[in-house]
Write a structure and sequence with these properties.
Layout (H helix, E strand, L loop, with lengths): L6 H15 L2 H17 L2 H6 L3 H25 L36 H8 L3 H12 L4 H8 L3 H18 L3 H4 L2 H16 L3 H7 E10 L11 E2 L1 H14 L4 E7 L2 E8 L2 E11 L2 E8 L13
Parallel strand pairs: 1-6
Antiparallel strand pairs: 1-2, 3-4, 4-5, 5-6
Helix pairs in contact: 1-2, 1-4, 2-4, 4-7, 6-7, 6-8, 7-8, 10-11, 11-12
């Protein structure tokens, strides 16, 4: 019996693909391609496949692997820094659950911006092996089918990827209490609104780094801004140049973040990494193509 295409199955594939690609648009395309290949099979062939879900996961993984390989070349031509596409918590925007793929995404520590940025540092094969095994608990035998490698080789890839994660301290994102993170973000918002450089410097780690993604479509800082004092001055300068900008506390990839809105339209989404009450990383997404889910507060 053809059991592919259930809502639960599609939800799982979207979740896998987003974590592999860091882009909901690309994740949608990868999942759609997997289903296209499924329905292109002769009916008799489909009926022979014992687990359509496993087949679709394998194909989705392979499509994502190809996309990751080509993405490296595309991102070398990308204007400025490339950041993953930020995800809103739909409940915060007054929208009910619907057919939008964003509604199917589980927002947990594996989609936190800090975690996705670490995934970007991995090779495509490492990323696939790590995400499928460590996040979704697929066996190395199953992953071997995706990567066309031996299970032992896939295990080595996942271990190498795990060392990258451990070396960047990204897992601590999940250990910081949500209330503590929200308090820190709220203080940043208040200091930013009042243009209080001293307060901002106190909230930012001295070695903090801010990275912005405008994609060449909008103006933004082209290189990372390093140092709490420099970031604080930059934030205040931006506030001076953008009168009427409204800051909102919103969930960004499941973590407390900030959204800047002008005339009811979201222009900027900021995610934070916080350690011991201090902001260590700020990721700012301004590329309009990556803000389609945030276009207007519901």
């Amino acid at each position: 019996m053809d059991t592919a295409g259930t809502a639960a199955e599609r939800r799982q594939l979207i979740n896998v693909a987003y974590r592999l690609l860091g882009s909901l648009a690309e994740a949608e395309d990868a999942v759609q391609e997997a289903y296209t290949r499924w329905y292109a099979l002769p009916r008799g062939k489909r009926e022979e496949i014992a687990s359509p879900g496993a087949w679709l996961t394998t194909v989705t993984g392979r499509v994502c692997l190809d996309v990751l390989g080509s993405a490296r070349a595309r991102r070398e031509r990308y204007v400025g820094a490339w950041l993953p596409e930020p995800l809103p918590d739909r409940a915060e925007w007054g929208r009910g659950q619907g057919a939008d793929p964003a509604d199917q995404l589980v927002l947990d520590e594996s989609v936190a911006m800090a975690f996705l940025v670490v995934l970007e540092s991995m090779t495509p094969a490492e990323r696939v092996a790590f995400v499928l095994h460590d996040v979704f608990r697929y066996s190395f035998a199953e992953i071997a089918d995706v990567l066309d490698r031996t299970p032992a080789s896939c295990k080595q890839l996942a271990a190498s990827a795990r060392r990258r994660v451990d070396g960047t301290r990204a897992p601590t994102t999940a250990t910081v209490a949500t209330t503590a993170r929200a308090d820190a973000v709220r203080q940043v918002k208040e200091a930013w609104e009042t243009k209080d450089i001293t307060a901002l410097v106190g909230l930012l780690d001295p070695a903090a780094v801010m990275v912005a993604d405008g994609g060449g479509a909008v103006g933004t800082v082209p290189h990372p801004v390093e140092g709490g004092a420099r970031i604080a001055r930059y934030m205040v300068a931006i506030a001076d140049m953008a009168p009427g900008l409204e800051l909102l506390e919103r969930s960004v990839n499941g973590m407390p973040g900030l959204v800047a809105r002008r005339a009811g339209v979201v222009t900027t989404v900021a995610a934070f990494d916080i350690v011991d009450g201090h902001v260590t990383r700020i990721w700012v997404v301004r590329n309009p193509e990556k803000l389609r889910l945030w276009a207007q507060d519901g």
